[in-house]
Amino acid sequence: MKIKLLVSITLLTINLLFAQTEDSLYTVFEPGIISLKGVKEGSPSITADGNTMVFVRYQSYGEKVPYIANKTEKGWKVERLNFVDTLYNLAISPDGGRIVFKTRNRPSPNADRVNNAFRVDRNEDGTWGKPVKMQPKLKDAGYFRIAEDGTLYLFINASEGTPRGIFTSEPKADGSYTDPTWLSDAVSPFPSVTYSPVINAKEDKLIVNRAGLNEEEEEKLGKKGLYIYQKYGFQWDTGTRLNLPYSWYSMVTPNEQIVFVDNGDLYVADLADLGISWNDEQITEQP
Questions:
Q1: Quick check: 252 and 269 in contact, CB under 8 A?
Q2: CATH of 29-274, one of 3.40.50.720, 2.60.120.1440, 2.120.10.30, 2.40.128.90
Q3: 52-82 confidence digits (pLDDT tens)
Q4: How far apart are CA 43 and CA 145, in angstroms?
Q5: CA torsion 109→155→177→230, rounded to 10°?
Q6: How much is the pTM?
Q7: Run of H or E residues at 16
Q8: Adjacent-strand bridge partners of 200
Q9: SS3 category, 8
Q10: 195 in Cβ contact with 165 (< 8 Å)
Q11: Nearest-angstrom CA–CA distance, 154 and 118
């Protein structure tokens, strides 16, 4: 009996220590200001200077309310974005002058949801203009991210027989974008659902969400979660899983923290604690 009790206590201690080690990697992001109790948050995206971010709050996953937060001397000031009632996900450009977003609304209560993608630019007075619908080949795109050079990174859940995963689209002089171009088989390995790209300034590191795999496929490609990729020349590697919970959206702040969605809240972790330098040439080994 004493031996069994000792073994049980030892196992419990090990489990608690493991849980504490894992939990110590991340904490709730801006609790009571951006991450509220009883409200779900998601779709975080931040400017290059770290002073403006957008995100959503919601109860129904298909109908999320967009917000913008601006950093002041007293902390974050959160305001509702009013250029659209609800949306699916959104991202802000590094300079803060553009937001791209996806809607997935029902035209009537019993109808199927309809996808649309939009871009909206900030006016000189700081207000937001009227959303402009993307071209048909970007209609079903979402989980956008805008690189510092203006390149649009996005996810398309393509029809059967065509690629599904991360694409890029280049900005045009009139403010629109080119038709999407497939990024890499390595970044979006078949048959995974690889989405929600986050790109660094040099566009040689990429964090994505990988899901949509059965047990057999996970043995080959790795279990679902956040993965970081490194680009060598023109070739992306096969990715390394981050030691974080599975999340369907994330962002990286200028001070190299990752903010990610978990259980309806936003959490933050230092990339250094995960063995990652976001803007250096190499990805260091994770602890």
A1: no
A2: 2.120.10.30
A3: 999 999 987 768 999 999 999 989 999 999 9
A4: 11
A5: 160
A6: 0.88
A7: helix 2-23
A8: none
A9: helix
A10: yes
A11: 13
